[in-house]
Amino acid sequence: MATKEKIIELIDKNQNGIEHLIDKKIQIWTDYVLFSGLWWMGLGLSIIPWIIWFVIRKKESTDRLLYIAFYVMSISVLLDIVGDQIGLWHYRYHVIPVLPTYFPWDITLMPLSVIILIQIKPNVNPWLKAIFFALLASYVGEPFFDWLGVYEPKNWNYSYSVPIQIVIYMSAHYLSERNKFTKLNPEE
Question: Where are its TM segments located (predicted)?
Answer without folding.
Answer: 38-56, 65-82, 102-120, 127-145
